[in-house]
Design a protein that fits this description.
The chain is an all-beta fold and 176 residues long. The protein folds into two domains: 9-104, Immunoglobulin-like (Sandwich), CATH 2.60.40; 110-175. It has strands at 3-6, 12-15, 23-28, 31-35, 46-52, 60-65, 69-73, 80-88, 101-104, 110-113, 119-125, 129-136, 143-150, 154-160, 170-175. It is built from no helices and 15 strands. The protein is elongated and about 65 Å long.
């Protein structure tokens, strides 16, 4: 599955759950908006959302009440976050968790020139993913400058040594 990140981000992921039929997440600054279909169980009093930095390892729990939409903030750019939801009844007895969904907080891509007029593209990377940095002068035909394999979460500083400044360039980052 490929996700394209450009200087303006638009990202939608599907949150697949046993009882959550059509949920999606939309990128927000430092966080993610989550929405889902309500549980068909008539005894539901509310929902818990669990999330954390590793699959099956949820370090945070949010009680979102009896709503099917919430925003999770404070996510670290470039890291993968994993989410499951449970419903609970009036006695706070929980259902089994939903299927797990994951989301990489993309952060932002910063483009800047240094003192020697060299172009730097700085962006967060997530462990276990690869990234293609591409450019275009037309936004129709794209050329891959390099592919980056990330072994750890962090920030990557790409220097475009082929950029001369004679022709404008558009850049995009493709996450694999």
């Amino acid at each position: 599955m490929r996700r394209i990140y450009t200087l303006i981000f638009a990202l939608i992921i599907a949150l697949g759950c046993n009882w959550i039929e059509s949920a999606q997440a939309v990128q927000a600054s430092g966080g993610v908006d989550l929405a889902w279909s309500p549980s068909p169980d008539t005894n539901v009093a509310g929902y818990y959302l669990y999330y954390g930095p590793a699959t099956g390892s949820y370090t945070q729990r949010m009680d979102v009440g009896n709503t099917t939409i919430t925003t999770v903030t404070g996510l670290t750019p470039g890291t993968t976050n994993y989410f499951v939801a449970t419903s609970y009844d009036a006695q706070r007895l929980e259902s089994f968790p939903s299927n797990e969904a994951s989301y990489i907080d993309p952060g932002t891509i910063a483009a800047a020139f240094d003192a020697t007029n060299t172009l730097h593209l700085v962006f967060p990377v997530a462990a276990g993913h690869s990234y293609d940095i591409q450019y275009s002068t037309t936004m129709t035909n794209w050329t891959t400058l390099t592919t980056i394999l990330s072994a750890t979460n962090g920030v990557y500083d790409f220097v475009d040594t082929s950029f001369t400044g004679a022709v404008k360039r558009f850049y995009r980052l493709i996450l694999h």
